């Protein structure tokens, strides 16, 4: 018996799944490992690979011990395979098998569906690292650089987690899929990542914060629904990943918050009350609030697209099969089968945006997206508190779900951020006020300068309130290697 | 589904396809309009198709042949990101009547046969350039092309997911073309047809599912290069330009469809439709140049287009007319003279296209699941290509001797050289060779009569008609036959006729239609697919099909 609370370091791969006694999987993973290291080494500029980064490493899945902080070179990071502890007597939480004992092995009839979900989830993990590969060069502080790397190595670990499941439970097909996860690459012409949003480069730090706040939150919601899976190893894997994902959300929320805080502070210091006095605000080297709203509009709507079609057969199949649950499925009070229930979704009929009842099973995506929107609104409220506290009359808002969509019922129509249907001309006239322009991008880019002195921050962003691992303000989070 | 389905379209009204012409290479781009379904109640997502999408594709294949003879290579590709074609629309199938599904699949495969044969028939080679998911009917489209190119982007795949996903078959040629055309090993085919996600990359090539797998960054360039190579290697003669296929002169009434050379009379109470073909109004042109000048008004082309449309109209829009009666009136010598001009110039592109088109129209008649009967009356013109109809139908009746008060010329049949191989059936034999499978000498005897007008007793002796009837018997015998036929079970009739029509060797084509008719249509009727708890009905609801596990 292996000890679930203590990670086993007796093999090349830290794990709490008894890997050393599972020769078949161990062999597969060890074979995959060199490819992974190559991928990592090719990805992050060498100077940063050789730097010592103050990272947390999961050494145990115990709530008190899973985050151990120390300096480590990223290629030496111990990407492990860690699953949340098995819950005795766990049952399948939803769908036609609800109440039956959770599966410990993949049921043959759902093998393909399950494999596809794992592959799609797995594909996003390395993709975001690829999208963010050049950001360290313009990090506004060592603190932020460290957070970037922390997010990166954990996305790498999440890839490991998905690869473990593929190797362990999906045989030869699983090994091929695991290889292809390294073959595809964000933005590649040869073999792009599976989801469109993961093929765009993250060009600047505000985009990175917006991405970790909005897009990683989509990842969180997907993990939440997979954590409800009747396939127990998948559920356990995702539950542990969620503990790490929380930090990514934190990086996003505080990153945007610190940007707002700095803008408000500089406006006050210079006696600017009008948030739309953007020329003066920008001249002071901070990002105006209307531009932050535009970035928010963009990233929120791109993230909504990741939830797929409002009415989805695949999502219905996955729920009914018990492979994917709803957000917090175990806390919901219904029959967990939804065979006779309905759910209200957006639709577009006769030129009108309407709400419509559809079978609840087919609206699983929409429901998760609604949960996402509620979850995402929380941070926006906290950002508004910062603005309010500074006494500036401006409120950030999540745009209407119809705005700027490429997938779903709204995708071939034009709407403003309030959800009003527009003509092409009206949309063109308004667009530059709703979405970042190239000029906005250039402006943000002009602020992106690397700051590497411990305790110092680029002028467009405020320092954090508290350090990582409660370290003091001038703590050297990254000991940069001399290039 | 009672709305009238119109098989006539033209490029100005296409909703689902775009066609580009660049010298010898044409590009056919599938870009299905989600909201352009033929019926309400479904959206054509992910380049999925319904009959309306297929009608446009059929129009494209026809115009490619007649309007663009300069084309030697046709590249079929998708206008959508990430999906080549997701196959037949499942919600449409789930909502359609059985009869609609069957007719839809049949027409779909006839269209596929058309472009599949385009290389052999006309020197137009079709390439499927597959980027994105290519599943079910989407892969069947690619299978009917002459060359399949697949991009290697680690997500594009070819797949036949019908069995695991829907509990039906990739039966519109999918299974059969995998084994008979692509010659995929049967155990690999078994694996391939059982997995939803299909096969991608090099394995698709190793397993013979595609001809080439190409790195994604080089895909478009390689497709373009291959198209040019094939065009350069083509033996098809260069032709400056084609002819126009103008809209048919057609008028649909309550109980009739009128064309310029074809009249369709509908007798709903009697469950009967009568198709009357008219002979040529004038003499045959003297040369192919004149035929080109006449264009789509040339007698045999106009007749073929009108008859083709009439058959399709009856199949989809007049489903209770279980008996189709073929008649003709006109000058048999003139029919033969028109055909002779084409046969003598068979290497002329337009002569070849018209002859090949007749081959397809006659096959469409063979494949029509109605009781077919031909009446060879006085004044009729069953000559050459039109005589083929006599050998396509289930029974034929011929007038013998003079009829009182009828001053039309005596009924004759005029055989031509074309009756011995120009228009092979799906089994690759001529209709006469199929008819006389056990008496090959009868074919030779008939061949000896080419060009001689054969009156009833001689036609009877040669075995060219079922019965010859004189003035006294004609009306009653025909009436009784028709009434009796109308009283039989339409299902039993369809089954019996399909069994009897296609004697002789199997070909890929006969196997596809035979299996489509037997297996796919059987499965379409079984509760495991189409019952209230069947997989096809439940598709999209999230609830799986509930199968009766008894093997039948």
Automatic annotation (TrEMBL), chain A:
Provenance organism: Sinisalibacter aestuarii
Designated name of the protein: Benzoyl-CoA oxygenase subunit B
InterPro entries xref list: Aromatic_CoA_ox/epox, Benzoyl_CoA_Oase_BoxB, Ferritin-like_SF, RNR-like
Transmembrane segments: none
UniProtKB/TrEMBL annotation, chain B:
Pfam families: ECH_1
Keywords recorded for this protein, A-Z: Lyase
SUPFAM superfamilies attached to this UniProt entry: ClpP/crotonase
InterPro entries per record: Benz-CoA_dihydrodiol_lyase, ClpP/crotonase-like_dom_sf, Enoyl-CoA_hydra/iso
Sample GO molecular function, one term: lyase activity
Protein's UniProt keywords contain Lyase: yes
Domain of life the protein comes from: Bacteria
Protein name (Swiss-Prot/TrEMBL): Benzoyl-CoA-dihydrodiol lyase
């Amino acid at each position: 018996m292996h000890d679930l609370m203590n990670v086993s370091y007796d093999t090349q791969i830290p794990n709490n799944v008894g890997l050393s006694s599972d020769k078949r999987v161990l062999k597969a993973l060890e074979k995959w490992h060199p490819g992974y290291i190559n991928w990592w080494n090719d990805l992050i500029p060498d100077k940063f690979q050789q730097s010592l980064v103050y990272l947390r490493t999961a050494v145990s899945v115990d709530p008190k011990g899973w985050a151990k902080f120390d300096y480590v070179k990223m290629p030496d990071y111990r990407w492990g395979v860690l699953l949340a502890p098995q819950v005795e007597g766990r049952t399948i939480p939803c769908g036609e098998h609800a109440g039956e004992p959770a599966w410990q092995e993949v049921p043959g009839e759902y093998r393909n569906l399950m494999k596809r979900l794992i592959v799609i989830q797995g594909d996003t993990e390395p993709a975001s690292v690829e999208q963010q590969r050049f950001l360290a060069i313009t990090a506004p502080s060592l603190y932020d650089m460290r957070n970037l790397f922390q997010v990166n190595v954990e996305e790498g670990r999440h890839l490991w987690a998905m690869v473990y499941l593929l190797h362990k439970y999906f045989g030869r097909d699983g090994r091929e899929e695991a290889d292809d996860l390294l073959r595809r690459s964000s933005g590649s012409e040869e073999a792009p990542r599976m989801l469109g949003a993961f093929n765009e480069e993250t060009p600047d730090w505000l985009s990175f914060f917006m991405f970790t706040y909005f897009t990683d939150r989509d990842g969180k919601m997907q993990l939440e629904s997979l954590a409800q899976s009747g396939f127990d190893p998948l559920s356990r894997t995702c539950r542990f990943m969620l503990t790490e994902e929380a930090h990514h959300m934190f990086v996003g929320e505080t990153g945007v918050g610190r940007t707002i805080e700095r803008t408000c502070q500089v406006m006050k210091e210079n006696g600017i009350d009008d948030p739309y006095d953007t020329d003066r605000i920008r001249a002071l080297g901070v990002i105006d609030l209307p531009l932050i709203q535009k970035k928010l509009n963009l990233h929120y709507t791109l993230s909504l697209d990741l939830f797929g079609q409002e009415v989805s057969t695949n999502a219905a199949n996955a729920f009914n099969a018990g492979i994917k649950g709803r957000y917090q499925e175990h806390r919901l009070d219904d029959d967990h089968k939804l065979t006779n229930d309905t759910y209200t979704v957006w639709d577009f009929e006769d030129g009108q945006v309407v709400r419509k009842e559809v079978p609840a099973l087919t609206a699983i995506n929409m429901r998760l997206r609604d949960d996402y929107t509620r979850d995402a609104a929380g941070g926006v409220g906290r950002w508004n508190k910062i603005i309010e506290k500074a006494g500036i009359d401006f409120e950030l808002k999540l745009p209407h779900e119809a705005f700027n969509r490429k997938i779903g019922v709204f995708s071939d129509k034009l709407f403003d951020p309030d959800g009003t249907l527009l003509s092409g001309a009206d949309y063109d006239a308004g667009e530059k006020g709703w979405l970042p322009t190239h000029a906005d991008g250039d402006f943000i880019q002009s602020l992106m300068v690397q700051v590497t002195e411990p305790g110092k921050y680029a002028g467009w962003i405020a320092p954090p309130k508290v350090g990582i691992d409660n370290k003091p303000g001038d703590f050297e989070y990254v000991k940069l290697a001399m290039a | 589904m009672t709305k009238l389905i119109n098989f006539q379209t033209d490029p100005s009204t296409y909703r689902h396809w775009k066609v580009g012409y660049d010298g010898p290479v044409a590009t056919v781009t599938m870009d299905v309009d989600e909201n352009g379904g033929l019926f309400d109640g479904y959206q054509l997502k992910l380049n999925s198709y319904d009959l309306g999408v297929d009608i446009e594709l059929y129009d494209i294949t026809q115009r490619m042949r007649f309007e663009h003879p300069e084309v030697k290579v046709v590249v079929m590709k998708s206008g959508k990101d990430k999906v080549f074609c997701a196959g037949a629309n499942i919600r449409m199938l789930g909502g359609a009547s059985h009869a609609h599904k069957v007719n839809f699949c049949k027409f779909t495969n006839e269209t596929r046969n058309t472009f599949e044969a385009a290389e052999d028939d006309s020197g137009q080679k079709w390439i499927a350039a597959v980027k994105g998911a290519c599943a079910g009917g989407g892969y069947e489209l690619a299978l009917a092309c002459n060359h399949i190119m697949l991009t290697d982007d680690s997500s594009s795949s070819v797949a036949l997911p019908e069995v695991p996903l829907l509990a039906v078959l990739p039966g519109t040629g999918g299974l059969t073309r995998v084994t008979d055309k692509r010659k995929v090993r049967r155990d690999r085919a078994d694996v391939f047809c059982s997995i939803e996600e299909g096969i991608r990359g090099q394995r698709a090539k190793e397993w013979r599912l595609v001809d080439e797998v190409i790195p994604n960054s080089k895909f478009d360039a390689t497709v373009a290069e291959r198209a040019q190579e094939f065009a350069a290697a083509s033996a098809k003669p260069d032709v400056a330009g084609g002819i126009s296929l103008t809209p048919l002169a057609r008028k649909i009434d309550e109980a009739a469809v009128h064309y310029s050379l074809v009249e369709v009379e509908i007798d709903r109470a009697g469950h009967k439709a009568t198709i009357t073909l008219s002979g040529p109004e004038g003499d045959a042109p003297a040369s192919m140049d004149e035929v080109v000048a006449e264009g789509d008004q040339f007698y045999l082309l106009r007749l073929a287009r009108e008859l083709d449309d009439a058959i399709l109209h009856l199949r989809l829009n007049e489903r209770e007319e279980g008996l189709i009666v073929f008649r003709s009136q006109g000058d048999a010598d003139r029919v033969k003279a028109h055909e002779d001009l084409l046969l003598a110039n068979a290497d002329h592109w337009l002569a070849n296209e018209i002859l090949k088109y007749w081959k397809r129209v006659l096959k469409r008649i063979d494949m029509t699941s109605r009781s077919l009967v031909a009446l060879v009356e006085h004044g009729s013109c069953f000559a050459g290509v039109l005589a083929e109809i006599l050998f396509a139908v289930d029974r034929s009746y011929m007038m013998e001797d003079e009829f009182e008060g009828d001053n039309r010329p005596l009924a004759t049949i005029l055989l031509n050289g074309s009756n011995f191989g120009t228009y092979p059936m799906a089994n690759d034999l001529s209709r006469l060779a199929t008819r006389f499978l056990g008496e090959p000498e009868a074919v030779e005897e008939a061949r000896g009569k080419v060009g001689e007008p054969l009156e009833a007793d001689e036609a009877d002796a040669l075995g060219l008609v079922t019965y010859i009837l004189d003035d006294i018997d004609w009306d009653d015998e025909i009436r009784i036959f028709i009434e009796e036929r109308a009283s039989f079970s339409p299902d039993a009739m369809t089954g019996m006729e399909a069994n009897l029509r296609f004697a002789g060797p199997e070909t890929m084509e006969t196997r596809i239609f035979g299996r489509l008719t037997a297996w796919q249509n059987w499965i379409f009727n079984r509760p495991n697919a189409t019952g209230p708890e069947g997989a096809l009905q439940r598709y999209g609801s999230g609830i799986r099909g509930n199968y009766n596990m008894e093997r039948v």
